[in-house]
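for the writeup, i need someone to sanity check this before i put it in the appendix. the sequnce is what the collaborator sent (i think, or maybe the updated version? ugh). structure was predicted straight from it, no edits. if anything looks off just tell me and ill rerun, i have time this weekend
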Amino acid sequence: MAATQIAPASGKLGILTPGLGAVSTTFMAGVFALRRGLAAPTGSLTQLGTIRLGKRTENRSPRIADFVPLSGLDDLVFGAWDIFPDNAYDAACKAGVLEKDLLEQVRDDLTAIEPMTAVFDRRFVKKLDGPHIKRQATLWDRAQALKEDILAFKERTGAERLVMIWCASTETFLTAAAVHQSLAAFEEGLKGNDPAIAPSMIYAYAAISLGIPYANGAPNLSADIPALEELARKGSVPMAGKDFKTGQTLMKTILAPGFKARLLGLSGWFSTNILGNRDGEVLDDPESFKTKEESKLGVLDSILQPHLYPDLYGQLFHKVRINYYPPRGDNKEGWDNIDIFGWLGYPMQIKIDFLCRDSILAAPIVLDVALFLDLAARAGMGGIQEWLSFYFKSPIHAPDLYPEHDLFIQLMKLKNTLRHLRGEDLITHLGLEYYD
């Protein structure tokens, strides 16, 4: 198998984040801390992961970072937009995720990151409001202003390549409308201030039209509309998303494949969350919660395939709740009650109480997605990058396919993509030899 030609990861890589809140500041502070040797990159596949090559008897398992050409941490530069003018240090202090001692050691690096004025429309995030926003008359003009921001950032930092990762709040629930169906309709909608165009779509449009890979870390409709998929195909620009797979849903994509593999039945799965960060405040609005609910609810059906196993999963009752509880801050609690049944239909229960830190789980995802999207761009891989589904609750996918939610199948697909890029045999566990 011939290896794919991949341009070298030379020079600086700029990572742009709409949103300078808990997730993005935790990610940035983490990179600065890693550069100084203050911490370990726990949770990052690009930094710690290995990949098996060939048969097990060959004992070839290099680090992923040594196997494919990825940008190094020292080559990363950061930019952001936010509706509040706080620099990254002040924003990180307000987010309350990281300890003050660690933040003080990277204070100068964080203080230097000041957000650009954001594209914002309170109709899409009703629980937040801020003064640091763009006020051009049309959405088209705001998109052009974002492009100017991007080009100025590239010039200012000397970045040779860029990626954009949406780290801002969840927008209200939307379904694709007429304005989303083609690039021509979308651009006319920008000029006419179509009310169905959300801010995240404007960021995605600005990035993709400049040839910059884009990923959506929230569950709202963003780049996953025909218009922007058309734009990505036209420019061969990688795109991925959506909704970072962090706490409770991460557990579902670990456990549900196990239940299905053992053909254990499920009669009910009740999930509730309490969290108190900005994300919790935003999701306290029913319309934003609807967006998140759709993302969380879709996981089990895809994994369990009730149409193939109606006796095991056809009557599953699945309920998800999110509750805003300010005292908890970023330390979310995800509680699950799972009612299963086994041999002869006998019932059993599993209870999980995951006291997680949402931004700590999300930060390495931002890093990995940014580095892999940049790799995809240098390898000429445009359009939807389904091999990055591993990182998302609601993976965007080709319209004639169903999304893959099984975490272990997703990981195999990701690693097989890397093997393919380097001309290595894919791991299928089939072969003539006893040792495969």
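The radius of gyration is 22 Å. Residues 358-378 form the longest helix (21 residues).
thx in advance!!
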